[in-house]
Design brief:
147 residues, ATP Synthase, domain 1, five-stranded mixed beta sheet, 2 helices, globular
């Protein structure tokens, strides 16, 4: 038995397929959704979504958003989402480094601070998704290579 899963950002549909289970970060902690899950609406937290299907796992980095589970499936509306298979380690490391530098610069307003921290959070989530993907592939990255 499978559950229809939809992951949508303002730019595109990132995933639209049936999967056996989905683990995702919420503001109340990580949850796993299986077929016939009770109806639920909750806030998505930045982190990594794990999709399980036919003995394989796929990882997606996400930022904040909304999660809805009902009889038609699981829908996630996220500000941003990136499949780990589409991320490049060096690019993610550079983006995280740049985001951290921005956060340490002289920030003159609360909105600038929030923007900088949002970038750091997004790049950290992308790095975690990439790390989990590489580990599943048997590629172990040491901490010096992952920011």
């Amino acid at each position: 038995m499978k559950i229809p899963f939809y992951l949508i950002t303002p730019e595109k549909i990132v995933y639209q397929e049936e999967v056996e289970s989905i683990s995702l970060p919420t503001v109340d902690g990580e949850i796993t959704v299986l077929p016939h899950h009770i109806p639920l609406i909750t806030a998505l937290a930045p982190g990594v979504i794990t999709l399980r299907n036919e003995g394989t796992e796929h990882f997606v980095s996400v930022t904040e958003g909304i999660v809805k589970v009902d009889k038609t499936g699981l829908t996630v509306l996220a500000s941003s989402a990136d499949r780990a298979t589409e991320l490049v380690l060096e690019q993610v490391q550079k983006a995280l480094e740049d985001a951290k530098k921005l956060a340490q610069e002289k920030i003159t307003s609360e909105s600038e601070f929030l923007q900088a921290m949002t970038l750091v959070t997004r790049e950290t989530s992308r790095l975690h998704a990439l790390r989990r993907h590489h580990t599943k592939q048997g590629i172990h990255l040491d901490n010096n290579n992952v920011g």
